[in-house]
Design a protein that fits this description.
Low-confidence stretches: 332-336, 608-619
Strand content: under 5%
Mean pLDDT: 88
Strand order of the largest sheet: 1-2
Number of helices: 34
Structural class: mainly alpha
Radius of gyration: 35 Å
Distance between the termini: 93 Å
Number of strands: 2
C-alpha cells in the first residue's frame, strides 16, 4: 500500500508542476508572459516526502530528491539548488537522476555567472551522460586555457577530458586534443575534436567541394593553395604524428583523418599508407564506404595531368563511385548526408574538368563538369551532340557520357530556345522537332506536385496563351484560366512562323505584328510563358532573378519592340494606335528596369534615395524626376486618344497610367 501511495504522491508533484518545469517557448507568441515559478508550498511538500523516505525507501527517496532539485531550480531562487545538493548529494546513487541534478547545479551557477563552477558540473554531466554532449557544449561558457587548467584539478581524469572537449569546441581544438592526450590518450572525447579540426581544415581548402568560391583555375594553383593552408596556416604535423604513434583510442578515425590531411598536403603516397592502415581498422559498411570515398579523392587529386593512361587508372574508382552513389540514393538511405557523396562528386568533377581545361580539351571539361553558358556557342553544342552519339567510346568516355548532366533532348531544346530569341523560328522548330521521346518532369499546378511523364519536349504545354496582350501583366490570373486548345512549345513556334510568314507577305500586318510582339513579350522574363525557356541547360526555372549569362536573352525587349513598332506603323484606327502605344509603354518600362536594376544585379526595387516623396502633394517634385512613376513615351502617345475605348479601359485598370495622367 505504501508503494502505491508513494507513486501517486510522486505523480502529483511531478505532473502537477510540469506546466512550469517543462514549459515550452514559442518565439512567434508575442503575448507570452513571464515564466511562472514553482511555489514554496510545492517545494516544501516534496522536501518533506524526501526526508520521510530517505531512511526507509531509497528508491522513492531518490526520485523525490530529484523532484526537490527540479522544483528549487524553477523557483524564484535558483541558488537554493546549490545548498540542498551539497547537503544531500553524498546519499544519492550515481544514476541518471544524479547527473540530471548536476545539470541543475550547472544551471544555478550559470545564473550567478560563476562559469568556473558551472563548467565543472557540465564536464561531469558530459562524461556521465554522453547523449547530452551537444546540448551541454552549447551551454558551456568558454574561459581562458589557464582558467580551464585550474578547474580541471578539481575533477576526475575522465571529467577533465570532457572539460577540455567542450573548451576545444570554442577555442583551439589542437590545444584541447594535446591536453586530453596527456591525461588519457584513449579518451573517446578526442574523436569529436579531431573530426571538428579536420572539418575546419577541409572548409578552408574546399574550393572544389560543395561550394566553389575561389577562382583557382589550374590544378597547380590548387595544390599550392592547399599546401599553404595545411602546412603554414593551420597546423597538421601533430595530426600525422599522432596517427603514426599508434597509441590512440580510435585508430580508424586517426588513420582516415591523417590520410585525408596528407592528401591536402600533396603527400599522396603518405596518404595511401594511412588509408591502407584505416582499411584494416574499418569495422562496418559505413566506414568502408567512407574510406573508399577518400581513396577516390586522393587518387584523383594526385593527378597532375589527364591522358589515356590516367583515365584507365581512374576508371574503376570512378565506376564504383557512380554505382555506389546511385545505389545508396535508390535505397533512400542517409549515406548521401552522412558520407557526403555530393561533396566527393563536386570535388572530382571540378578537379577532372580543370585537368581537361589545362589540356585544352574543352569537350571533356564540359562533360565532367557542366558550365553555365557553354551551349550558347553552337559549335560547342554540336561537339557535345556528336560525342553523345559516338558509337566507339572508350570505357572512360562511356562512363561520363552516361552520367552527363544533360540529355540529347535537353541539348536540342536549348538550341531551339536560343534560336527563338534570335528570331530564328525555322531553326527553333527544326531543333525542337529533333528532341526524342523521354521522361519529362513537369509541375502540375492543379495537383500542386511534380510529375514525370513520357513525351517530347515540344509537346510540353504552355500555361497561358502567348499571343494575348493584357493591360495588366497578371500571370497567375492567366495561368488559372482554362485554355480550350493550349499551345505546346512546338505548336507555339509554328504559329509564330505562320504569323511572320503573313507579315512577310503584307497580310494584315498590324494584327500579325501585334501578336508576334506579344509572343516575344510573353516568352521573356516579364511574360506569361516563362515555362517556354525552362530547360536544364538554360538553367532558369522561375524565381525573381535571371542569371547573368541569360539576362540579355530573357530580359531583352528588343524583338518584342521590333514587332510592336511594325504594328504601330501599320495601325489604321485610333483604337489600334492607342493599344500599340500602351504595349510600347510596357516595353519602355521593362527596358528601364533592365538598365537600372536587373542588368546591374540590383533586385531591391526603387532605391530609397530615388523615392523622393510619396505624399500626394508631390512637394514640388517634377514628375520626370520620379523614378517610380516615369511618363513613358508610350503613355504620351496614348494620351492622344482619350476618346477611344482602349484608353478608357487603361485609365481604369492601370493605376500607373492613371497616376501619371491625373498629375498631368
Amino acid at each position: 500500500f505504501r508503494s502505491v501511495l508513494n507513486f501517486f504522491q510522486f505523480l502529483e508533484i511531478a505532473r502537477g508542476n510540469e506546466y512550469i518545469t517543462n514549459a515550452g517557448y514559442n518565439p512567434w507568441d508575442y503575448e507570452q508572459g513571464k515564466a511562472e515559478k514553482t511555489s514554496s508550498k510545492e517545494i516544501a511538500k516534496a522536501e518533506k516526502l524526501y526526508q520521510s523516505a530517505k531512511d526507509t525507501d531509497l528508491f522513492f527517496a531518490n526520485r523525490m530528491w530529484y523532484q526537490v532539485m527540479r522544483l528549487k531550480f524553477y523557483s524564484g531562487n535558483k541558488s537554493a539548488v546549490i545548498s540542498f545538493f551539497e547537503q544531500t548529494e553524498a546519499q544519492q546513487p550515481k544514476n541518471t537522476l544524479y547527473y540530471r541534478a548536476l545539470h541543475y547545479m550547472a544551471g544555478a551557477y550559470i545564473s550567478q555567472k560563476n562559469y568556473a563552477k558551472a563548467n565543472a558540473y557540465l564536464a561531469q554531466v558530459y562524461n556521465g551522460m554522453p547523449k547530452l554532449m551537444q546540448m551541454l557544449t552549447y551551454e558551456y561558457h568558454p574561459l581562458t586555457d589557464k582558467e580551464v587548467s585550474q578547474i580541471a584539478t578539481t575533477l576526475l581524469p575522465e571529467e577533465q577530458c570532457a572539460l577540455w572537449a567542450m573548451q576545444g569546441y570554442y577555442n583551439n581544438e589542437v590545444v584541447a586534443i594535446q591536453k586530453i592526450l596527456a591525461i588519457d590518450s584513449k579518451s573517446p572525447h578526442i574523436d569529436f575534436l579531431l573530426s571538428r579540426y579536420v572539418n575546419k581544415v577541409e572548409s578552408k581548402v574546399n574550393i572544389w567541394g560543395a561550394y566553389n568560391e575561389k577562382d583557382i583555375t589550374s590544378v597547380k594553383k590548387y595544390h599550392q593553395y592547399t599546401k599553404q593552408i595545411t602546412t603554414k596556416d593551420l597546423a597538421t604535423d601533430w595530426l600525422l604524428q599522432g596517427a603514426e604513434s599508434e597509441k590512440v583510442h580510435n585508430p580508424y578515425l586517426w588513420y582516415l583523418s591523417a590520410g585525408y590531411i596528407a592528401m591536402f598536403r600533396n603527400e599522396f603516397d603518405r596518404a595511401r599508407e594511412f588509408l591502407r592502415k584505416a582499411e584494416r581498422e574499418a569495422k562496418n559498411k559505413d566506414q568502408q564506404v567512407q574510406l573508399r570515398l577518400i581513396e577516390a579523392l586522393n587518387e584523383v587529386s594526385s593527378c597532375e595531368k589527364i591522358d589515356k593512361e590516367t583515365e584507365e587508372r581512374l576508371f574503376k574508382k570512378m565506376e564504383w563511385l557512380w554505382k555506389a552513389a546511385r545505389q545508396n540514393s535508390n535505397e533512400n538511405t542517409l549515406y548521401n548526408n552522412t558520407l557526403r557523396y555530393n561533396y566527393v562528386f563536386s570535388f572530382v568533377r571540378n578537379y577532372l574538368s580543370t585537368l581537361y581545361k589545362d589540356a585544352h580539351n574543352t569537350l571533356m571539361a564540359e562533360i565532367t563538369q557542366p558550365q553555365r553558358g557553354f551551349y550558347k556557342d553552337k559549335n560547342q553544342s554540336v561537339a557535345i551532340e556528336k560525342f553523345l552519339l559516338k558509337k566507339n567510346k572508350t570505357p572512360w568516355e562511356d562512363l561520363w557520357a552516361k552520367e552527363y548532366a544533360y540529355t540529347l533532348g535537353d541539348i536540342y531544346e536549348s538550341r531551339a530556345i536560343y534560336a527563338f530569341y534570335e528570331d530564328n523560328i525555322d531553326g527553333a522548330i527544326a531543333e525542337m522537332e529533333k528532341a526524342p521521346v523521354q521522361d519529362i518532369q513537369e509541375y502540375d499546378v492543379q495537383k500542386d506536385t511534380t510529375i514525370i511523364k513520357r513525351g517530347k519536349r515540344g509537346e510540353v504545354l504552355l500555361p497561358a496563351n502567348p499571343f494575348n496582350g493584357f493591360i495588366k501583366d497578371c500571370h497567375d490570373c492567366e495561368h488559372e484560366k482554362k485554355q480550350l486548345n493550349p499551345y505546346s512549345k512546338l505548336s507555339f513556334l509554328k504559329k509564330v512562323k505562320e504569323m511572320e510568314g503573313k507579315i512577310a507577305k503584307g497580310n494584315d500586318v498590324y494584327n500579325n505584328a501585334l501578336l508576334v510582339g506579344n509572343a516575344f513579350y510573353n516568352a521573356s522574363y516579364f511574360g506569361n510563358i516563362r515555362k517556354f525557356y525552362y530547360n536544364s541547360i538554360v538553367g532558369e526555372e522561375g524565381g525573381y532573378r535571371i542569371e547573368k549569362e541569360n539576362q540579355k536573352l530573357l530580359l531583352s525587349m528588343e524583338i518584342a519592340k521590333k514587332y510592336y513598332t511594325l504594328a504601330q506603323q501599320h495601325a489604321s484606327t485610333d483604337e489600334q494606335r492607342a493599344k500599340i502605344a500602351y504595349m510600347l509603354a510596357k516595353v519602355e518600362r521593362n527596358e528601364f528596369y533592365n538598365e537600372r536594376y536587373f542588368f546591374k544585379d540590383d533586385w531591391s526595387g526603387v532605391h530609397l534615395e530615388e523615392r523622393v516623396n510619396f505624399k500626394d502633394d508631390w512637394n514640388g517634385v517634377r514628375l520626370e524626376e520620379r523614378v517610380d512613376f516615369k511618363d513613358w513615351q508610350g503613355f504620351k502617345e496614348l494620351r492622344k486618344y482619350p476618346h477611344t475605348q482602349y484608353y478608357k479601359e487603361v485609365i481604369i485598370e492601370c493605376g500607373y497610367f492613371r497616376q501619371v495622367s491625373n498629375k498631368r
